[in-house]
Structure formats: structure tokens, C-alpha cells
Amino acid sequence: MSSLEELTSKLTTAFDGKDYQKCDLLLPAIKIELIKNNLLVPTDPDHVNPNDLLVTRSILEVGAIVSINLLNTANFNSFFSQLKLFYGLSQLPTSNNRNKLVALYLLLLLSQGDLASFHIELEQFVNEKMTVDELEQDRFLSVPIKIEKWLIDGDCSKVYEILSQQSTKFPCEEFHLFKNNLIDAVRTEIARNMESTYGSLPIANCKLLLFMQDLTLNDLENFIAERGWALTNGVVQFKPVGQSVPDGLSNEDGEKTIINNVLGYAREMETII
């Protein structure tokens, strides 16, 4: 059986070569060796060699980055959860990868629509590590913070714009892995408000509001079916949600804000709805 040192050397070589599949195969054996040496979840970190803790932290960071590149969110969550312990150890210097991985975790929460966990994670990070200003100025953390703010403000058009443009440059390539899921999350939020704000809409308007102008009619029809809406003679009839919508409109300010912001974006693009 290979030693921890040998396995770590192989992992480093594979990771540097972006052979994430090989990394994924090596990581379970490495974690077993870390457990044997009381390093994966050290019971008394103050009495462990700091260099050993640094090596373990680096391995967990590799595991997190590998997992997100392989789109294995369950493994990413596991590695990130273990990393939290190491990021909280005062005897270790701050990792250069910390803010990047925290930002990736925040983007994952946003893509899953889990705003509650997003706020909990961010507040904990503010209290323990950085000020709000430092967070907003950090090249990694500023991205999920801006996206979350736009979502809360109902400014979905800004989220879509930054995610859909090919010219958008994120601080690391892993951020691009969340683009499609985040766009789906934006469309889901807009759709939820559409069906609460309107009784029905022409299908052309739906395409504009959902940022589906460049997608096929089949894509839109699939989306309509998934939402439980009905399409008849070019008009989308929304499934009633909660109270009925008088005269096709609700009085919810938040719902109107999102719709109005999207409509405003369409007008800026010289599109008449």
C-alpha cells in the first residue's frame, strides 16, 4: 500500500496536470491515510505539527476544487465542510485558496436557491475573517455578493447579463461552471413571480421575460410543461398560485419589482412588450 507521502505526490502531479479523474480516484485512499494519522479531523490541533495541518488543508482544497470541476456537489460540500475546521485554526497562515473556495460554495448555494444558507455562511465569514468592505472588494467573494444583491433587489436582468455574456471574465475558471445553473435559478425566480403577477401572457412575452430569446421553441415548451403551465393558441396560461390574481395582476411590490426590472431591461434592448 502506498504511503501518505507517495499518494500526495501522485495527487499533486495529477492536479497540476488537471487530471481531475485521476485525482478523484486517489483522494479516498489519501483520506483514509489522513484518518489513520489523526489529521482529517484532528482531535487536538494544538498538539499536531502545523506542517502536517498545512498539508492536510492543501489536500482538502485540492479535493474541493477537483469535486467542483467534476460537478460532484456532494463531494464538494463534504470537502468544504472539513475545510472550515482548518480555516478556523489560528496557528495556520491564511490559505490563498480560502476566499476562492468560499466564493464557490456561495455560488453553489445561490444556484440551488438556498439564500438562507448563503446569508448564514456569509455572516459567519464576516464575523470571523473579514469586514463587509473587504468582502465586497475581494475579487472572488465580490462575485456571489453582487449576484445575491441583484437577486434580492429583483434585478434579475443584471444577473443574466453578467452570466450570459461571453466577454464576462470571472476571477477563476471554476466560476463558469455555475453559469447555467444560476441562469436556471434566475428563470425559476422570474417564473415564480410571473405566475403570481399575471394570469396569462403571450408566448413571445414569456420568452423575453425568461431570457429565452435565443433558445428554441421546444426549450420554452419544456419549461412551460415543467412549471405546469398551459400553452393554448400562443398564450401561456399560468397555474394559479395562492390567491387568484385580479385582472391579471397582483399587488405584491416584490413581484412587480422583478417583473418591472426585467421589462425595463427589455426596453433598453429596444424590445417592445
Structure characterization notes:
- The protein is mainly alpha-helical.
- It has 13 helices and three strands; from the N terminus they run H-H-H-H-H-H-H-H-H-H-E-H-H-E-E-H.
- The protein has a domain at 170-273: Alpha Horseshoe (Serine Threonine Protein Phosphatase 5, Tetratricopeptide repeat).
- It has helices at residues 4-16, 20-36, 50-69, 73-87, 98-111, 115-128, 132-137, 142-152, 156-164, 179-197, 203-209, 217-227, 253-268; strands spanning 200-202, 230-232, 235-237.
- Strand 2 and strand 3 (235-237) form a beta hairpin.
- Helix 4 (73-87) packs across helix 5 (98-111).
- The model is unreliable at 241-252 and 265-273 (pLDDT under 50).
In spatial order, strands of the major sheet run 1-3-2
Quote the distance from N terminus to C terminus: 67 Å
Largest sheet: 3 strands, antiparallel
| Structural category | mainly alpha
Keywords: Proteasome
Protein name: CSN8/PSMD8/EIF3K domain-containing protein
Organism: Kuraishia capsulata CBS 1993
Pfam families: CSN8_PSD8_EIF3K (PF10075)
Keywords for this entry:
single chain, 273 residues, mainly alpha, Serine Threonine Protein Phosphatase 5, Tetratricopeptide repeat, 3-stranded antiparallel sheet, 3 strands, 3% strand, elongated, disordered C terminus
